[in-house]
Amino acid sequence: MRRALSIIFMASLFCLLFSCKVKDDIDYMKNIENVAIKTSNRTYTSTIQPSDQLVITILAKDNEVAKPFNRDYYSTDMSQLSGMPSRSSTTEPSYIVDSKGNIDFPILGTLNTTDKTIDQFKDELKEKLSKYIKNPGVNIKTTNYKVTVLGEVNKSGTYSIPDGQPTTILNVLGLAGDLTIYGQRKNILVVRNVDGATTKEYIDLTDAGFINSPYYYVKQNDVIYVSPNKARKSASSYGPQTGIWISVASVLIGVLALIFR
After folding, report:
1. In whole angstroms, what is the distance from residue 134 CA to residue 65 CA?
2. What pTM value is reported for the model?
3. Is the separation of the CB atoms in 151 and 180 below 8 Å?
4. N or C: which end of the chain has fewer CB within 10 A?
5. Total domains present in the chain
6. Is residue 240 in a domain?
């Protein structure tokens, strides 16, 4: 009888100490096949956003003709007039897209980028430049396309996206070293600025349906936050003394086992 009571007591104590154990589903996109069929023909293009930093270079068969359309031409010219050192050749002149989606371009004046992809804006520039340059060449790249990842990931931080290429939330989480075992796969928060207003969306990585979400592809300055699961929250709530109490409990269990033996 005493031995049975001892076993019941020890089992109850262990259950109390380790009741914080939580089973967390870490499988991603379980129903990917069904969703993939529905979205196989869907494409995504990233448009230019306010605050984007664009490096634009105009080329021509005769580079002298193209120079007035490149911002560094004016920077070099002004430095020579003022007697100041010229711009370093390693520094690329850039244009910051304002809140209305505009940039101020040499000779062509104000150009609007709203709802335009890099390729669309490049084609528009070529058309406008063709009045001045025969077969102009246009190179455009985004230099400050960044996304921040916080919370339960292996490498939190801010990550640059090369040339603003279409990038998914999975790509970004990959850059952050994936979620830790304590991250909530079903509750990924994405915070985004849309037309000056802050919006948010929760993504469930275990359901492939999230690839249809407008938040599946990240945008400039998105913030992705991975919440801790119940196991992490419970562990953090115990504090640094938890290990000591578990050790004490182990000793007590041993003593009680001897008494009731």
Report:
1. 9
2. 0.59
3. no
4. N
5. 3
6. yes
Same domain, 194 and 156: yes
Among the listed residues 169, 154, 158, the one whose alpha carbon sits nearest the alpha carbon of residue 210: 169
Query: In which domain, by residue range, is 196 found?
Result: 32-44+145-228
Both 137 and 150 in one domain: the answer is no
Of 217, 54, 61, residue with least CA distance to 124: 54
Q: How is residue 184 annotated by DSSP?
A: E
User: At 9, which amino acid appears?
Assistant: F
Tokens of 55: 């490096």
CB within 8 Å of 257: residues ≥ 6 apart: 6, 10
* 128-186: pLDDT as tens digits: 999 999 999 999 988 888 899 999 999 999 998 876 677 899 999 999 999 999 999 99
Residues 157, 143: Cα–Cα separation, whole Å: 17
**What is the rounded CA–CA span in Å between residue 183 and residue 203?**
13
Task: Please check whether residue 111 is in contact with residue 105, taking contact to mean a CB–CB distance below 8 angstroms.
Answer: yes
